[in-house]
Amino acid sequence: MTNDKLIVFDTTLRDGEQSPGASMTKDEKVRIAKALEKLRVDVIEAGFPIASNGDFEAVQAVAKIIKDSTVCGLARALDKDIDRAGEAITGANSGRIHTFIATSPIHMEMKLHKSQAQVLEQAVRAVKRARQYTDNVEFSPEDAGRSETDFLCRIIEAVIAAGAGTINIPDTVGYTLPDRFGKLIAELRERIPNSDKAIFSVHCHNDLGLAVANSLAAVMNGARQVECTINGLGERAGNAALEEVVMAVRTRNDIFSCHTDLDTTQIMNCSRLVSNITGFPVQPNKAIVGANAFAHEAGIHQDGVLKHRETYEIMKAEDVGWYANRMVLGKHSGRNAFRERLKALSIELESEETLNAAFARFKEIADKKHEIYDDDLQALVSDTLSTEHERVKLVALKVCSETGETPHANVTLNIDGMENTAAAKGSGPVDATFRAIECLVDSETNLLVYSVNNVTNGTDAQGEVGVRLEKNGQIVNGQGADTDIVIASAKAYLNALNKIKTPIERKHPQAARQV
Ligand code: KIV
Ligand code: ZN
After folding, report:
1. Cα dist from 68 to 38, 41, 259, 348, whole Å
2. What secondary structure, in 3-state letters, does 30-47 show?
3. Is 361 a pocket residue for ligand 1 (Cβ < 6 Å)?
């Protein structure tokens, strides 16, 4: 049996960011990119440079910093998109342009208003233009899962001839089934005369919960690149989860004739970081990275695992990084130990000032909580970084909650350098706090989601609060962490408000017409 390399293309920073409310700042993207490099993913799709100046700068920053992974920018099959992507990846050690155009009848007719001939011509032109910036060009026929196979064969043959080295087959709307998708990949590889000149890739969405199954079926049929995201983040129901694809290929190496080069012990670190930054919690029963993924509740299972682990476990928890980073810091730990631990977690704080602020926050938490775990560190660093440049900051919060009395809160905020205080009552302490904040900011937002998770175990654990707000169709997430969950709630609310106060003008790659 052959043992080819399976290229892992991570699109957490691009498709993952398309999840409503998951948008990331440049610094957050750089933090995640560094963790992905440590995980040894082959390609990092860092964003869609034409979408906004912020997206462009983020791709450029990732391209400059990342040395071991290829950095990719997405572009519609348009000159201006390709030029912007080409510019964004110019500083990369290894850069790629990923260009796409829809090929399904419904997309061509209803969205693009273009014929097959026009789409084919535009695709070829786009690939040729991208080749002027880099030899590493990927082409995707968007909505391939619902495209006519004959047309796919023609357009793919033409773009390979034009210089595309990777052909990505997206199941954009998560419509295909594993057996059919696998056969599609086999058929394309067989029928397209120059198919051996390109690597076939797949990009599956999870609308029917089949993204990983479809990706693996494609790998069985010769795909040698899988596009995926950490925790399965992504547009609508998400993309294929990187951790699931990678561990399936590794665990069932008796079946797959390929391997990845990933350091799987970094999976948990990436999963926690992405969840922490985006505020999208990982469900407890999520494969590989969920809190229960390696927990054995039933007595018979526990007994079996104790006698012989493999009775009920097909993977080792350590292999995906569970427990690997459980080093504990405490209130006597010094700055050096703190800095070293952050380094081990791929967290490099840019300035001494930020390090000092994070260290001060660490000492504050260590006073309240005996043991500080890596999860606490991730949460406190996110907290420090996210509040650094905020216009609205929490100065003080006092809450009274008593049996038989209506809870009330007093909040002092610093808004653009000016301090103001307001008081409000509410049905609970968090409600009173949010109402008091609203007295000061009058944001006219709708609260869509409010969630509390414990960062670690025990009643002294930090609570991590997630808040999702909506205003005029813009959705933002905010996070806050503290051992006091009302304070964490106020921080999360403000974190979200700060994001909505500066609306981002962004293009969505698949929504805009390609003219
Ligand atoms: O889902 C999709 O089709 C995409 C393309 C841009 C590859 O994300
Ligand atoms: Zn996608």
Report:
1. 9, 9, 18, 17
2. HHHHHHHHHHCCCEEEEE
3. no
Q: Which protein residue's CA is at the shortest distance from atom 2 of ligand 1?
A: 172
Could you tell me if 22 and 126 lie in one domain? yes
CA-510 nearest atom, ligand 1: 6
Q: Which residues surround ligand 2, an ion (CB under 5 A)?
A: 15
Which residue blocks in 163-222 are alpha helix, DSSP H? 178-191, 211-220
**Domain containing 488 — which CATH number?**
3.30.160.270
Residues 223, 108, single domain; the answer is yes
Whose atoms come closest to the Cα of 240: which ligand?
Answer: 2
Is residue 512 situated within a structural domain? no
- Nearest atom in ligand 1 to 74's CA: 6
Cβ pair 138, 165 in contact under 8 A: yes
The answer to whether residues 49 and 101 belong to one domain is yes
One domain, residues 111 and 227 = yes
**pLDDT at residue 297 greater than cutoff 60:** no
206 lines ligand 1 (CB under 6 A): no
314 and 399 part of one domain: no
Statement to judge: residues 147 and 64 lie in one domain: yes
Q: How many domains does the chain have?
A: 4
Residue-wise pLDDT for 365-407, tens only, equals: 888 877 788 778 888 887 788 777 788 999 999 999 999 999 9
In DSSP notation, 319-331 reads GGTTTTT---B-T
- 20 domain residue, yes or no: yes
Shared domain check, 272 and 136 = yes
Is pLDDT above 80 for 504? no
450 band by pLDDT with thresholds 50, 70 and 90: very high
What's the 203 CA to ligand 1 centre distance in angstroms?
Answer: 7
According to DSSP, the residues that pair with 482 across neighbouring strands are 463
Q: At what angle do helices 242-251 and 211-220 cross, to 10 degrees?
A: 40
Domain's final residue, options 286, 321, 356 = 321
Whole domain around residue 350: which residue ranges?
327-386
Q: What is the pLDDT of residues 28-73, one digit of tens each?
A: 899 999 999 999 999 999 999 999 999 999 999 999 999 999 999 9
Let me know whether 374 and 304 are in one domain.
Answer: no
Start-to-end CA distance of the chain, whole Å, equals 47
How far is Cα 204 from Cα 242, in angstroms, rounded to an integer?
A: 11
pTM of this prediction exceeds 0.70 = yes
The reply to whether ligand 1 has any atom less than 6 angstroms from the CB of 203 is yes
Alpha carbon of 231 to those of 188, 190, 220, 238, 282: distances in Å?
A: 30, 33, 23, 9, 7
Q: Is residue 129 part of a domain?
A: yes
Distance, CA of 316 to CA of 268 (rounded, Å): 13
Cβ–ligand 1 contact at 48 (below 6 Å): no
